[in-house]
Amino acid sequence: MRQDSNSGCPERNSVICQSTNHKAIVSDVCASFNSRMWGRNGVLCSFLILCLWACLNAVPIDVGKTKVSPPAEELEPPKSADTGLHYDRYLREVVDFLEKDPHFREKLHNTDMEDIKVGKLAKELDFVSHHVRTKLDELKRQEVNRLRTLIKVKQDLDGERGMTVDHQGLLKQFEHLNHLNPHTFEVDDLDRLIKSATDDLENFDKDQHEEFKKYEMMKEHERRERLKTLDEEARKKEEEHYLEMKKKHAEHPKINHPGSQDQFKEVWEETDGLDPADFNTKTFFSLHDTNGDGYLDEQELEALFTKELEKIYDPTQEEDDMVEMEEERLRMREHVINEVDTNKDRLVSLDEFMAATNKKEFAQQEGWETLEQNPIYSEDELREFEEHLIREEQDLNQKTNDLVRQREELERHQQELSAQKIQLQQAVEHMERLKSQKTEPPVQAKVNAVPSAMEILPGDSQSLGQGHQQDLPAHS
C-alpha cells in the first residue's frame, strides 16, 4: 500500500518522501499495465507513463513549507479492450478491482495460465482486502439485477408473441456467476467467471470462422442463383467476368510467412522506417509492444500483418473483399499464437518471442498460402447449406401462410363483430322509439272535424245539423 506524502514522514524529509512517492506511483502504474489477460489502449498508456515520468523528473516541492497538502489522486485502472462477451463490462470491472489489491495482483502475474484455468487463482480471493471484496459484492449485485431485467424483458416479449419461454436458455446467462447467492462475491463466483471467460474466448475464433464460412457460401449461392435468371449469352459474360476477377485477385506479390524473419524485417523497414541491417528482434518486440506491458496481445500481433494484407486487398478494387481480408488477418494471428504462445495464455511474452526467433524456422523463406489457395468449403457443404436455406425458406413460407390465415380469420371475426354491433345499435334505437311512443300524450282532435256517431254524447246536439235534431226524442 502506498502512503500519502505527508503521512509517516518528518517535515524535514518531505521533499525526499514526495520524490519517493512519485516513484511509487510510476511503479504501481507500470504494474497495473502488466496485465496478462486483456489488451490495453497503447496511446493512453504511453501518455500516462510520459506524464508521470515528467512528474518524477520535475523539481520537487517542499510540502512542509507551502503548507498545502497534495490532492489524493486515485489512479484509474487502464481500459481493457472489449472482449465481445455479453458480460464483458462485469468481467473487466472485476479484473480491474482485483488488480488494485497488491496481493492478488502479484499472484495473478506469477500464476501459470493452466493453474488459472483449473481455479487455483480463485482461491486467492480469500486474501483480498475488505474494501475490494465489498466492491466486488456490489458489482455482482449489479450484474444479477441486469440479468434479471433482461430475462424479464425477454419473458414479456415472448409472452406477447405467444411463444414458449426457454427458461433453460435464459438460465445459461448466469453461468459466469452463482445466481443462488446474489448478494456476495465468493470464490465460486471468481472460478465461474474465469472458466466462462476462458471457454468463451477460446471458442470466439472458431465462431468467427464459422460465420465467415457461411458468408462465403451465401455469396456463392447468390451468384449461382443470379446466373439462373440470365439468358445464355449474359450468363457466359458473367462467368467470364467472375473468373477474370478471381485471377486478378490472385495476382499479388509474395506473402511472407507470418512471424518469419522476412515478415518482421519488412515491417521494420517499411512501417518502422529503420535500416534492415540494424534489425534486432528484442528492439522489434519493444517497438510493437505499444502499451509497454511486456506482452504482444492479439491486437498488437494483428497490427504486424497489415503490410502483408495490403499486398492482397485493396478496398477500391472490385475483386477484393474486405470481409475476406479480416478472415486472413485472423488466420495469420492464430498461426503465430499457435507457434509462439507456449503457455497458451493468448499472449506472447518477450521470452516466448525470443525463443521463437532463435529457431531455425524463423529464418526460412517459405511463403504463406492465402485464402484462395485454401478452399473454405466443399461442394457437399455448399449443397447442404443450400438445402438448409430451402428448408428455412419453406418454414418461413409456412409461417407466412399461417399468419395470413390468422389475419383473414381475424378480419372475418372483426366483420362479424361489426355486424353484431350494427344489429345491437338498431335494436337499441328500436327500443328507444317504442319507449318514446308510450310516453307521448294523445293527439287532440281538430275542431272542424266531424265526430263519428259513437263519439256523440247526450247534450251534444249543437254539433248536429238541423235536419237531424228533429229526429231526436225530446227530453222530459
From TrEMBL:
Keywords annotated in UniProt: Calcium, Coiled coil, Cytoplasm, DNA-binding, Golgi apparatus, Guanine-nucleotide releasing factor, Membrane, Metal-binding, Phosphoprotein, Repeat, Secreted, Signal
Polar residues composition-biased segments: 460-469
UniProt topology in membrane: Peripheral membrane protein
GO molecular function, one term: calcium ion binding
Gene3D superfamilies attached to this UniProt entry: EF-hand (1.10.238.10)
Location of the region described as Disordered in the Swiss-Prot/TrEMBL record: 455-476
Gene Ontology cellular component terms for the protein in this record: endoplasmic reticulum-Golgi intermediate compartment; extracellular exosome; Golgi apparatus; membrane
Coiled coil regions, renumbered to chain: 187-240, 382-437
Main location class: cytoplasm
Domain EF-hand: 276-311
InterPro entries (alphabetical): EF-hand-dom_pair, EF_Hand_1_Ca_BS, EF_hand_dom, NUCB1_N, Nucleobindin
Calcium among keywords: yes
Keyword Transmembrane helix among record annotations: no
Record family assignment: Belongs to the nucleobindin family.
Descriptive protein name: Nucleobindin-2 DNA-binding protein NEFA
Organism from which the protein derives: Triplophysa tibetana
